[in-house]
# Entry
Amino acid sequence: MSLTLATPQTETTALSLAPREQEALGHIAAGRTYLQTARHMGLSKHTVDAYLRRIRAKLGINSTAELTRMAISLGL
# Structure
């Protein structure tokens, strides 16, 4: 019998996201639209969209519901 230590996925996931990506994810998880998120962060809607596309690609996520679930598990 062998034991392996694994890093919790949420900790690894949080480390793989840039601070602004984490911030955008938190806003979307809180129910804000892309436009509301963009205005709050001082960005364009297209930049927020790019952040969220990058997050989806990094984490293999396809839907906003999955993004929200991930944000909650990360405590954002």
